[in-house]
Amino acid sequence: MQLETNRLKIVSFEAELFMPLYQLFCENETVMKSAFKGRTLTKKEFLEVLSNDFILNDEEQIGFVCVLDKNTGDFVGFTGLIPCDFLGDKDDLEFGFVLHQNHWGKGFATEIGQFWIDFAKNELQKHRILAAASPHNHASINAIKKLGLTEVKEISTENRGSRLVFSKEF
Question: Would the pTM count as exceeding 0.85?
Answer without folding.
Answer: yes
